Each structure stands twice: as structure tokens, then as C-alpha cells.
Amino acid sequence: MAGYSPFFIRWLSQIGPDQVIAVLADLIDIGAVFVIDAEHKVLFWNNSAESIFGLNADAVLGKLCTDVLHCDGEIDPCDLKQHGVIKAQPISLKQTNGTRIKCYRTARAFFNTDGQFAGAVEIIQPESKATLAVPTQPANDSFHGILSNDPAMLEVIKVISNVAETEATVLIRGESGTGKELVAHALHQESSRRNQPFLAINCAALSPSLLESELFGHVKGAFTGAVRHHAGLFQRADRGTLFLDEVAELPLELQAKLLRVLQEQTFIPVGGNVSITVDVRIIAATHRSLREEVKSGRFREDLMYRLRVVPVFLPPLRDRRMDVSLLLWHNINQHNIRGRRHINTIAPDVMRCLLDYHWPGNVRELINVVEYAFAVGRGNQLCMEDLPPEFRETNSPIKSPHNLVNYLNEEESIREALRIAGGNLETAASIVGMSRATFWRKRKKYHLN
After folding, report:
1. Distance (Å, rounded) from C-alpha 357 to C-alpha 228?
2. Which is nearest to 365 in space by CA: 92, 179, 199, 180?
3. For all residues of the chain together, what is the average pLDDT?
4. What average pLDDT does this structure show over 14-39?
5. CA of 407: how far to CAs of 13, 403, 417, in Å?
6. pLDDT value of residue 141
7. pTM for this structure?
8. CA atoms in the 13 A half-sphere facing the CB of 346
9. Tell me: the pLDDT tens digits for 183-215?
10. Phi, then psi, of 26 in degrees rounded to 5
11. Across-strand partners of 213?
């Protein structure tokens, strides 16, 4: 039986039991962890629960767990009252996108001094939950290269499948490295144009004059060095798809020309005088808000509405926590197949570090981290020494967030964290070293917006 000293009780009172529970729930990382009271209302909801069910703490705290989990009668509230403990009970639960996932439920009930049910701690573990050991089978359920178990990404895949059947213009919004071109290519592959060209260009990579020539082509003699006719991307993508990455960087003088192509499917090459008619589907992407670009005068409003017929938002990897392990093992397996090193386990401290990392470079950065590990490391286990230097820096803000509680009282520290984070609850909670659920409760306690 576990033991503890009187000093543990004192330490627990100083740290706060709620914070200890939150940290333990995330350290274990075996699935959704939540706490219910005697009326089966949710009191605590951890980060993995948010990822698995697509519901953040704000949306579930105070609600009946059976309503939150959409268990359709599979969970009997009386089970815990009668038995006190439930271990690995197979159940099927519904996610926010409507799909059902097979899970195992483990729970431990608590009773007051009168023997009355007082609440419980429950763990819901998806049947396909990735572990620290290498999967026996490589992931093969990708959607045109898009690999995810995250509810938000699964919703993106659903939108892609639906909108691909139409000719609607799609604007993909997401941070660098989230896979915008991968999504654009998936849209093309799912469409009736799949057997026609798919061409892509980064609008931020070329000067305005070169970009115009590359998009619309030029005729011989249009400018110095134009010794022959050049067919632009629009002409070469005829009957296919053209992907305009970082479209917010498109110069104003070219935006009018792009608008004409979208409206009339015609354009005039640089130096030419004859219109060329094409049939091209446009998919655009940006990491910026086009509405903000319009407000600042850097982007045409009429073009924004033409491009933004169907907006698709790609969540950053830091918000797809349950995908980190999935993508990590997928890329490790790719290297295992072709490399001289074979990794079959990941050290627990490494997995914890990777799960906690902010991933500013998103999926692209994760791929680079795995490549780095295979280049510099040796042995069958992924160790901390195999990670890039930024993961091992003790003063890294990712591993050691600023703890404002050291010099401010709790209310002031929460207010300051909200200011620093610009109102983002997850970032603010990280700054003060609290879980999001704890931070949410504390914020409500002090009536802070």
C-alpha cells in the first residue's frame, strides 16, 4: 500500500490538489481523465480528453458525463455506486464529428463517511491509443497523406471530401508546416480533375514581375531576356488545379488580374494582346487573416470573397496533442524501413518532452526532429540526447514556463498571464503552470475575462 509522510500533506496544501491531479493526469497520458461528483457532473477534464472528444473544458465542466460522452446508455451510473471499481470496460463513445470510437473505461469511486457515493475518477482509453512502444503495424489509414486521429482534422477531411465534388474555390488557413499543400493536393485527388495537372506556386517566393510571368506567362520580346514564348501556370494547369500558397503576399497589381481569371476564366500574358481562356480550379492558402489584410489595405475585398468561398482551417500541432505520438511513430517507421538505425522504443522523458513541446514549426518541424534523431543518434531507443538542442535547454520557455506566482499573488498572476497570452487560455495556463481546466476555474473565481 502506498504511503506518505506528514510533509506530503503540507506540500499538497501548498501546491494545490487540483494542480497535482491535473499534472498527474497529463503525465500518465493514457487517455481521457476526468472527475465527476456525486451527481455525475464533470469537475475536471484533462488535455487528452479535449483531444479525444473534441470538447474543451469550458464546454463540459458542470455537465453530466453521460451527456458529454454521448454514451447512449452504454455507461450505467449505478455501476460505480454498486461496485466501486471498473476496470477496462469496453464501450463505444461518439465524438463531436459523429463518428464512434471503441474505448476502454476504468474508474474508481469515492464514498463519504456515511457510505454515500461522493464521486469518481475515470479514465477513457481509445482502443487504438498509441503507446511508447513501436506499433506492430504501420499507420495505413492516411487520407492522401494526411494522418490524424484529431477530431478537428477529421472534420477537415470530411469537408475536403464534400467540397471536392464541387468546383467551389477553397481557402486553406493554417500556420506554416500544418500541411496546407497536402490538403490542397487531397482536394485535387478527390475531385473530378484528379487526372489533370496539379500545379503549385508560393506567392511569397518571387518578385512581382517574376510572379506575374510565372502565373500568366509572357510572349516573346515582352521584356529583356524574353527570347521565347512562355506558358504560365494558369495555361499549364488548364482543366486541372492551381494551388496558390501564401496568397496574402500577392502584390496588389496582380490581385486584379487574378480576380479576372476567377470571374471570367481568361487572362492576357505579359506583353501580349490576346486573351487566353482556361478552365482552372483555384485553391489558395495563407497563414494570415485575409479580413485583416483587407482592413489594412493590402488585399482586395472582392478578391477575398472570390477566394474564400469555402474556408478550411488547419489546427496547429500543439492543438492536436494526440496526433504527436501518431505522427512521431509514422515518421520513425519510415526511417526504420530505409535507414541503418531501427528505433522501437521512446524513452518516457522524451515522449513527455515531445508532447509538451509547442511545435512552432508544426508537422514539418516534427518530421525534421525525427530526421535529426536518426542522423545523430544510435541504438534502438529514442533518447533525450537524440533531440535537437532546443529540447535540452534548461532555460527553454517551452519546458520551464514563466511562473508568475513566484512574485505575484494568484489573482494578479492570472490577470498578467492573460495579458501576456492575449487572452489565449491554453498559453496563459502554461505561463502560470496550471492545467487549462484549473486555470479556467481560477479565472472564473476572480471574475477575470
Report:
1. 51
2. 179
3. 80
4. 70
5. 19, 8, 13
6. 62
7. 0.58
8. 25
9. 999 999 999 999 999 999 999 888 888 898 899
10. -80, -30
11. none
